[in-house]
Design goal:
The chain has helices at 2-16, 21-38, 41-44, 79-109, 120-152, 166-184, 195-209, and strands spanning 51-56, 66-71. It has 210 residues and is mainly alpha-helical. The protein has one domain. The longest helix has 33 residues, at 120-152. The radius of gyration is 25 Å and the shape is elongated.
């Protein structure tokens, strides 16, 4: 959850401090990257002594419908509340950082001349912006699934059936974000070279030498 926010902050520092962003981001990444790996432990430590079990799904699912759950967590804590609170906090921070970044980019873009707006750097910024928005969208989707689980699991509400879609949404988050980044970022674009143009240029050179 920290990665989209960290990605936004790095870009915001680049726009805000163009002369010394390298030093600031070097310090930020030196702290932020290890934190991405350590941070989840503080919210999942209670699952270390827990065991995985197959549990019967509650109503409205029929008898025989099971899902993998956990039992005997430390202090009786539940993962869903930690996940929901984390989603809300990082979603809120990401939206604030994204709004600040767009305002900075809009101000800088108004000072560019027209041909610069079609440059590779502009397309790269647009690609990263699209990728970031998709990341924030998945924040909302995952938070919505957790909220539905807390409010409607075990009831007769049709919202309970939406929990079936959650694993697919998680897989989409893993696949769609890098897929969109790959399709939109100019670094992955190949420059097409026309064979006809190469042949005609070679032929004209040969005629000039003869």
């Amino acid at each position: 959850m920290i990665f989209p926010f960290l990605m936004l902050v790095v870009r915001l520092i680049v726009v805000s401090f163009p002369m010394k962003h390298y030093k600031i981001n070097a310090i930020l990444l030196r702290i932020g990257v290890p934190l991405i790996w350590v941070y989840p432990i503080f919210f999942t430590f209670f699952l270390i002594p827990a065991v995985g079990v197959c549990r019967q799904l509650s109503s409205p699912y029929p008898l025989g419908s099971v899902h993998i759950y956990y039992a005997n967590p430390l202090f009786g804590l539940r993962n869903s509340y930690f996940y929901l609170y984390n989603t809300i906090v990082w979603l809120f921070l990401s939206i604030i950082a994204n709004v600040g970044l767009f305002l900075k980019i809009a101000k800088a873009r108004s000072q560019l001349i027209s041909f610069q707006k079609g440059s590779i750097s502009y397309k790269a910024e647009l690609s990263i912006s699209i990728t970031t928005i998709v990341m924030i969208l998945f924040y909302v989707i995952n938070g919505g699934f957790v909220l539905i689980y807390i409010l409607y699991y075990g009831t007769d509400s049709y919202f309970s059936f939406l929990l079936i879609v959650k694993p697919f949404a998680t897989d989409m988050q893993t696949c769609v974000v890098p897929w969109i980044f790959y399709l939109t970022h100019p670094v992955f674009k190949r420059v097409a070279v026309s064979d006809m143009g190469v042949s005609s240029t070679t032929f004209s050179r040969q005629m000039n030498h003869s």
